[in-house]
């Protein structure tokens, strides 16, 4: 079965307790279960990870590039300022979809900039945890 990585950046381990009015009541464990379930339906093996550490996220993106593994990536706050992440994504050798639970374009101005969008295959934002499901479907249908 084809493997897909689902990488999550800082503070996403705190889903469920973190600003539930913005990110909903579901936990990171719920997100993992949703991704695994969706992967099973689509015939994909889904490897879900979360880190608060920019260097670790960069090293995971290198691993994806070296293995030509498609990625669903929620870069969280790194979206808005991490050129290191952007440079790592630019090395990708398979589709990479940027996802967001909320719709950053409808929030504070600093969230309107994504420094990674231009090097991603595409972006899905604003559908809650369903953003991940839609991204996995897009990968299954196009990768
Ligand atoms: C987020 C949006 C970002 O602006 C924020 O920093 C996050 C989560 C989202 O999934 O909606 O941590 O990426």
TrEMBL record:
Pfam families: DHquinase_II. Substrate binds at residues 74, 80, 87, 101-102, 111. Pathway: Metabolic intermediate biosynthesis; chorismate biosynthesis; chorismate from D-erythrose 4-phosphate and phosphoenolpyruvate: step 3/7. InterPro entries: DHquinase_II, DHquinase_II_sf. The record marks 18 as: Transition state stabilizer. It catalyses: 3-dehydroquinate = 3-dehydroshikimate + H2O. Keywords: Amino-acid biosynthesis, Aromatic amino acid biosynthesis, Lyase. GO terms for biological process: amino acid biosynthetic process; aromatic amino acid family biosynthetic process; chorismate biosynthetic process; quinate catabolic process. The active site is at 23 (proton acceptor), 100 (proton donor). Gene3D superfamilies: Dehydroquinase, class II. GO terms for molecular function: 3-dehydroquinate dehydratase activity. Its EC number is 4.2.1.10. PANTHER family: CATABOLIC 3-DEHYDROQUINASE (PTHR21272:SF3). Homododecamer. HAMAP family: AroQ. Belongs to the type-II 3-dehydroquinase family. Catalyzes a trans-dehydration via an enolate intermediate. This is 3-dehydroquinate dehydratase. It comes from Sphaerisporangium melleum.
């Amino acid at each position: 079965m084809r493997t897909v990585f689902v990488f999550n950046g800082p503070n996403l381990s705190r889903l469920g307790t973190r600003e539930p009015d913005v990110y909903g009541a579901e936990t990171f464990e719920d997100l993992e279960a949703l991704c695994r379930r969706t992967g099973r339906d689509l015939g994909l093996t889904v490897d879900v990870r979360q880190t608060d550490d920019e260097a670790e996220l960069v090293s995971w993106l290198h691993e994806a590039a070296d293995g030509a593994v498609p990625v669903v990536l929620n870069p969280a706050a790194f979206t808005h300022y991490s050129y290191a992440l952007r440079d790592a994504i630019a090395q990708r050798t398979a589709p990479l979809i940027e996802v967001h639970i909320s719709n950053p374009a409808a929030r504070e101005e600093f969230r309107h900039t994504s420094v990674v969008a231009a090097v991603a295959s595409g972006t899905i934002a604003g559908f809650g945890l369903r953003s991940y499901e839609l991204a996995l479907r897009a990968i299954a249908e196009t990768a």
